[in-house]
Specification:
The complex is a heterodimer of chains A (282) and B (492).
Chain A (H helix, E strand, L loop, with lengths): L6 H4 L8 H7 E12 L2 E12 L3 E5 L6 H8 L7 E6 L2 E2 L5 H4 L2 E4 L11 H11 L4 H14 L15 H13 L5 E5 L7 H16 L3 E5 L3 H7 L2 E6 L2 E6 L21 H10 L11
Parallel strand pairs in A: 3-8, 3-9, 6-7, 7-8
Antiparallel strand pairs in A: 1-2, 1-4, 4-5, 9-10
Chain B lengths: L2 H10 L7 H48 L3 H22 L19 H12 L3 H17 L5 H28 L6 H23 L7 H10 L3 H27 L18 H4 L4 H15 L1 H21 L4 H14 L16 H5 L4 H29 L8 H28 L16 H27 L2 H23 L1
The chains are: A alpha/beta (282), B mainly alpha (492).
């Protein structure tokens, strides 16, 4: 089972003839992306595409290559080989053209410790070219939306992990980008914030914007994403439309245990079920 | 059995006391491995060799100096060294001792008393202190041979280290973290610091030098009733350590791990950025805020500007070389930060690459914000001759010469800072990927700045003496202009 075999579901490996057309139409297009950190191969020919106006989820175990993929797509890292295009523009490190059209957030990266939350949002907005009034309005809206208003005057190093995460998300939203790349957007968020973020993402997708996210919360991914890819050991092993087994070939229907979602069963089927060691002394 | 009952049973179980030796072994092992990751074997061996050579050289120089020194001179040296140690430790946060973070060790089954006690032991395990102790012991042996002073020198040194460390810890806690303390402890801390400051001023004013630690150290050093003089040092150190214990206990259990930040009201937060914003202005402003809110950079700024002004104003000393020296000193304070201008933002550095800006604009903003900070410090030094007539700063050419020197220093910092920040931003320590203070540039920028400034002084002085004021003035103005052109070319 793999992306190569899942033609009807993904369309990842369709004929070369309409390849160029896909590059033109897909908001995010990734082909044969590899990344080596010395002898370690983080990505081994990652290929997927995301149509405009959809939410795409990347799931997979720790160390699967999700953050590496996001860093390359955000232009923060050069790939070893392969092509990645966003909105038809080839992703290059420090590309100013793409920077203004992409929003990126990742808990792996920090924010300025010695600025307060409002200043960080304002700085991002102003450097994205927004007028002062617009920057102020959007900053206030986002602070209210993400329940950060009371902490807006505090330095970032005083923020909790969840507050930092919300501020990072707000920075990625503030210039209303066409494509959002969100690495682990729900990590450390409280349920109310998760609800608000999910609603915002759906609203953005409905208005034609594209969202690519990764998460370990499979139930949430199942609920939010239009399409999900399972990344394992640097390769896209499987792609599916989440929900009630839609898009999963009949033979591949995973058997779900009680309390287990379809996506969870599928993930375990693809990457292998977790082995459990009993602690006799516990 | 429900959860609460289980917890009750667990809490009554005898907890095996963790051996302090086990903790010591654990922490030393961690430290050793960190050094291994940071430097590797070759570098560690080099450091050991360099330190051994430094000890030998320092000892031979010190021995030749102390041979002819009197008791008063030795006491004065000890007092001054202690004052410099405390000031430098307070300003930079580096007091030469090893600080184990107590809050990190709280989950071990050890009482706070034992943790604090072990931290006093760990404090001594650093290379600079070992080097200091070796030099001291060699000097004691030379100066007071045939006595047992060398036996008393070790505890005296340890008491000095613990005392200085406790004072630095108390002052820094009062300055940066007093908000985390309970009210009574906070007031006690401020009262203690005020009492210490007043007593030092009074002792100095009434010439009661025998109450200062230098006097006792000198007597121990010379073998004059060495063990008797350990007592006052021991009492002072014990009182300071006890005060530090109370403060640290309160601080660690406050649950506030970092310094409490400066807070702005919701209405005023961000106003500075919104004033006629443009990309370059916003970049410059966030860079400046970053420098000013970094407590070490801020403390250096306040210390440099106030000390520069206060010393020149109140001591009434002055000459061209004196002002040159002072300007050089305040410029050199922040020079190491130019080694990796973006790296000082630590893990936030990626933001610059995600914004639709050019990286050279970010470097330019960082450079000019730091130059502004340095200008304020130079301004502090030069304010004194503005307010009162000062020797060496009376004619226009004196002013042009000093301003030219300061501008050259700042421009050289910007030129070399840009070069190293762009081409050699990698840290020397392999593990501190984001640290701006450990790059080759952090060491080379101050050195290059100093060497070139020293070279520039010579033609200036020669021109002034041999050619007269006007050609010298032209030279003083033209050198910064040339450097400005070079700076702009480098940044482009």
């Amino acid at each position: 089972m793999g992306a190569e075999e899942n033609d009807q579901g993904t369309g990842v490996h369709s004929s070369q003839a309409d390849g160029n057309l896909k590059i033109m139409t897909a908001a995010v297009f990734v082909q044969d992306l590899t990344k080596n950190y010395g002898p370690t191969k983080a990505l081994k020919g990652l290929t997927f595409e995301v149509p405009a106006g959809s939410i795409y989820g990347l799931i997979g175990p720790n160390g699967a290559g999700k953050t590496t993929a996001f860093s390359i797509l955000a232009g923060l890292m050069r790939p070893t080989s392969g092509i990645s295009r966003i909105l038809g523009i080839e992703v290059q490190p420090n590309s100013r053209e793409l920077a203004s059209r992409i929003g990126f957030s990742s808990p792996q990266f920090g924010l300025f410790d010695y600025l307060n939350g409002r200043e960080i949002l304002l700085a991002c907005a102003l450097m994205h070219g927004l007028a002062a009034y617009e920057a102020e309005t959007r900053t206030q809206d986002l602070l209210e939306l993400l329940d950060l208003e009371s902490a807006a005057g505090h330095f970032v190093y005083e923020y909790s992990q969840g507050m930092r995460q919300k501020l990072g998300l707000a920075c990625s939203f503030i210039h209303a980008p066409d494509v959002l790349l969100l690495d682990e957007p729900f990590i450390a968020l409280d349920p109310a914030s998760v609800y608000r973020v999910v609603r915002t993402l759906r609203q953005m997708a409905a208005s034609g914007r594209t969202v690519v996210l990764s998460s370990h919360d499979l139930a949430l991914v199942e609920r939010v994403c239009h399409r999900v890819g399972i990344l394992h050991e640097g390769e896209l092993k499987y792609e599916t439309d989440p929900g009630p087994a839609a898009g999963i070939p009949a033979g591949d229907q995973p058997a779900t245990a009680p309390g287990q979602s379809q996506l969870e069963s599928l993930l375990w089927q693809v990457v292998g079920a977790p082995e459990m060691k009993d602690l006799s002394w516990l | 059995m429900n959860g609460a009952q289980q917890l009750q049973v667990l809490s009554t179980l005898p907890v095996r006391r963790m051996s302090i030796l086990l903790l010591a072994r654990l922490l030393i092992q961690e430290r050793w491995r960190k050094l291994q990751v940071q430097y590797g074997w070759a570098a560690r061996l080099s450091i050991c060799l360099v330190l051994a050579m430094a000890t030998w050289m320092l000892a031979s120089v010190s021995v030749s100096l102390v041979r002819a020194a009197t008791q008063e001179q030795i006491a004065e040296v000890f007092n001054r060294l202690l004052a410099i140690w405390i000031i430098a430790g307070t300003v930079t946060g580096k007091d030469l001792t090893w600080h184990v973070r107590l809050e990190r060790l709280l989950f071990f089954p050890l009482s706070f008393q034992r943790l604090f006690g072990s931290s006093l032991f760990f404090a001594l395990l650093t290379f600079p202190l070992t080097l200091g102790l070796c030099v001291l012991e060699i000097c004691v042996l030379v100066k007071s041979s045939g006595t047992i002073a060398w036996l008393a020198a070790l505890p005296a040194f340890i008491l000095l280290v613990w005392g200085a460390r406790a004072i630095i810890s108390l002052i820094r806690t009062a300055l940066f973290r007093s908000g985390a303390l309970t009210r009574s402890i906070r007031y006690m801390l401020w009262l203690l610091i005020a009492c210490l400051a007043i007593s030092i001023v009074l002792l100095d004013h009434y010439n009661l030098s025998s109450a200062l630690p230098g006097y006792h150290c000198a007597r121990i050093f010379l073998g004059i009733d060495p063990f008797e003089h350990l007592l006052p040092l021991g009492i002072a150190a014990a009182l300071l350590i006890a005060a530090d214990y109370v403060v640290q206990h309160d601080l660690v259990y406050s649950g506030i791990t970092g310094p409490l930040g400066f807070r702005t009201s919701r209405k005023t937060a961000g106003r500075f950025l919104l004033l006629r914003p443009s990309t370059s202005r916003v970049l410059w402003r966030i860079s400046l805020l970053g420098w000013l809110r970094n407590r070490n950079a801020l403390l250096l700024l306040i210390w440099g500007a106030l000390y520069g002004f206060g010393y020149t104003y109140f001591t009434k000393v002055g000459s061209q070389m004196y002002f040159v020296g002072f300007c050089w000193m305040v410029l050199i304070f922040h020079s190491y930060l130019r080694g990796n201008l973006l790296g000082v933002d630590n893990r936030a550095v990626w933001v610059y690459y995600r914004l639709p800006i050019r990286i050279d604009d970010a470097i330019r903003a960082k450079n000019s914000a730091l130059s502004f900070v340095q200008m304020v410090m130079v301004g502090g030094v030069l304010l004194s001759p503005v307010l009162r007539e000062t020797r060496g700063m009376t004619t226009p050419i004196d002013w042009i010469g000093i301003l030219s020197f300061a501008c050259c220093g700042i421009l050289l910092g910007e030129i070399f800072g840009s070069y190293f920040s762009v081409l050699h931003p990698e840290p020397i320590e392999r593990s501190s990927l984001y640290s701006g203070g450990t790059t080759p540039g952090a060491f080379l920028v101050p050195v290059l700045q100093t060497v070139i400034l020293a070279i520039l002084i010579v033609p200036g002085a020669v021109a002034r003496r041999n050619l007269g004021d006007v050609p010298a003035g032209i030279l003083f103005v033209s050198v910064p202009v040339v450097l400005l052109v070079v700076r702009n070319a480098v940044l482009r």
